[in-house]
Amino acid sequence: MPAYSFLEPGEQIIQLVVTDENGAQSTPKVIVVVVANPLPIIQLQILDAWVDGELLMDTDVFPENGLPDQWSRTFDENGVNVAIPGAMLYFDSSGTRDGDQRFEGKYVPLEQESPDWNGLLEYTWDFGDATPIVHDPMPWHSYERPGLYTVKLTVRDAFGTGDVTRAEFNIHIDAPPEIAGINLPDEVYEDFSTAVIINVSDAESLADLVFYRDLNVLDGSNSDRDEAISNDLVVEWEQDILRDADGDEIVDNDWFVSTNTLVTLATVVWDEPTDAVLKVRVCDGMGLCDEAQADVTVLPEQDADPSLSDFSWDEWKSWMSDAGSDALGFIALILAALILGWLVMRQPNEIEEEAKQNAETYDVEHADDGGLLGMDHHSPPPAPKILSKQERRNDESGYIRPLRRRE
CA–CA separation, 84 vs 378, rounded Å? Predict the structure, then answer.
C-alpha cells in the first residue's frame, strides 16, 4: 500500500488505474481527498530591554541601532509576565508561522515573495489597555498604570479567505508603594530621640510575592530563575533636605536606613533648634518608589513647658545678676503674688464655714485603735513628682510625648 503526504491543503484528486499481466488497464477510479488546512501556530515571548545596564523606558531615547544591549524576561510564580509602569516591552513573535508543513523553519512575516515567508498575512494585537489595535508582527508597548492586563494576538494565514489562530497572554504591571502619611510628635525638641512613623501600603509586599528574572533568554529558555526579586520594602530617611549633612554640596541626598526592627519606624535626633524638612523614600523590589516629606519645627529644650523645678540655683543667680537693680522689684512682686494667692486660696467660703460650725456639735466616738470605725489606716500614696528637665530627657522616667500625624 503506497503512502503519501500532501503539502497543500484543500481538495486533492487521486486516480487509481489497475493494469493486468497482459497490459490491459482498468477504468480510472477517481478519489477526492480533502486535506484540512493546519491553523497558524503562535509562539510569543514578552521581553524586557536593557541599555547600558538600565531598563529601557518609554521616556528614553531608543538605541540608534534599534537593539538593546541585553534581553530578559520577568515573571511570577505562575509564569505570568511582570513589568513596571512605563517599561518598554518587546513582543517577540518570531516563532509564529502557518501550520502548513511547507512553512516549517520559515519565520519571515507578511513578505510572500520571500523564500522564508512564514505563511501569515496579518497580525492583530489588542494590549488590553484601551490603546489602538496594532498590526506590527513584533511590536513594542508600555503600560501606564499598574494592574493585570490580557494581551490578545490574532494571526491569519493565506489559505482561501484565511484561517486564524487566537491566543491570550497575561501581564502583571507592578504597583509602586504608597505613603499615606508621616506621624511625628506634637512637639519636637533638640537633643531628644524623636520617633517618626510612616503609614505605607504596597499590594505586592502585602501578598508576599516573589518575582523571578531570566537574564539570558537567548539560550533557548525564557523561564530560568536566574534572579529572585523580593518585594520587601526598603525605607530610607533624610533628616533635613535643607542641610548638606555629608558635605558633598548636595543637600537632598543624605539618606540613612533605620536600624529599628520595624522598617517604617525611625529614631531621629536634631541637635539644635531649626526649621527642618524630613523626607522619606520607600521602594519595592522592582525599583518602584514613593516619597513624602514633612515640615519639622525643632524647639529649644527650655521652651518645653518649664516649671520652677527646672531652674537650678546657678540659673537663678545668673538671672538675678542679669536683672540687676530690678531683681528686688521682680522678687517682691512675685512674693506678693504668691502671698495674695495663698490668702485667697485659704479664705473659707460659706459652705466650709457652715461645715466647721456643724462639726463642733458632732459627738464622734473614736474606736480603740485610734480611728473611726471602718477607716483605712494605711498611709496615703506620695504626691506625683514634678519631673525636671534632665529627668524628662531620661528614658527611665517614663516621660512620653504625644504623637501627632503630619501629612
Answer: 71
184: phi > 0 → left, psi -120 to 50 → alpha, else beta; which? beta
Q: Find where cell 513628682 sits.
A: 385
CATH architecture of 178-303: Sandwich (2.60)
C-alpha cell at 401: 510625648
Most confident of 173-177, 333-337, 379-383, 385-389: 173-177
pTM of the model: 0.67
- State pLDDT tens for residues 200-216: 999 888 888 899 999 99
Domain residue spans in the chain? Answer: 45-173, 178-303, 308-345
CATH 2.60.120.10 matches 45-173 = no
Cell numbers given for 19: 493494469
Residue 236 and residue 254: Cα distance in Å, rounded? 10
- Phi, psi torsion values for 313, nearest 5 degrees: -65, -35
Q: Are 267 and 193 spatial neighbours (Cβ–Cβ below 8 Å)?
A: yes
Is the Cβ–Cβ distance between 166 and 152 less than 8 Å? yes
Q: CB burial class (10 A; 0-12, 13-18, 19+) of residue 235?
A: buried
Q: Which residues pair with 196 in a beta bridge?
A: 266
DSSP state of 361: H
Same fold, 45-173 and 178-303: yes
